[in-house]
Design goal:
- The relative contact order is 0.10.
- The protein has 2 domains: 69 residues, Arc Repressor Mutant, subunit A (Orthogonal Bundle), CATH 1.10.10.10; 145 residues, Four Helix Bundle (Hemerythrin (Met), subunit A) (Up-down Bundle).
- The chain has a 3-stranded antiparallel β-sheet.
- It is elongated and about 65 Å long.
- It is mainly alpha-helical and 232 residues long.
- The chain starts with a helix and ends with a helix.
- The protein is built from 11 helices and 3 strands, in the order αβααββαααααααα.
Amino acid sequence: MNDRQLLLKALLGRIDAARTAPEARLPGERELAQALGASRSSVREALGVLEVLRLIERRPQSGIYLRPHGSEPSLEALVLHETLDVRSSSVDYEQAQEARTIHEVEAVRLAAERRSAGDLDDLLAILERSRTNLRHGRNLADDDEAFHLALIGAAKNPILLRIGKSLYLMTRSVRHAYFEAAGSGAQSLREHARILDAVARRDATLAAKLVRRHYAGSSARWRRASASGRRR
């Protein structure tokens, strides 16, 4: 991480800690700069980022206040937590997974109707690369992301693809942990192959059904793995 990212991560940690205090607020810029070993201008810039992401609110002549815990942070703020390795809760992951399901089920309907021969070639190449990586015992999280984003890309709607990228960024660390579980990679590839076949045959109804089933199964496997990890 660069200095700016480290500063943002430190401030996110301060925000999480401040939520337990009676008055949810941060110290002033000068105090934060001294505590974090950064220049005041760097702290001011980082606070500006967090304010744009709706995590804090700077009130003139008053202070730096946290947004209420129940208020909605921006989608970018959730991505930032993941990018800076500030772990989200299991509830956040479940919600992101639910959003991915709703988003991708409809995207794959369009993909089945609009996909080109080039899209199918790209998806098949990702699937073959995934099989090679599985044989070599590699984590398939990145291959999984590439397949799903290529699937959404075949819908020919840049906005759908942009949303999809954000949702995948929000769940990257959990998906890496998921693919460490024995059997997860092989099961995922089998399901990807069926989805690709339905898209290739332009069967939008079947493709949507298979994507919904794919997410339901992966969510159930993740919950079992997560529960097993907590019991250890």
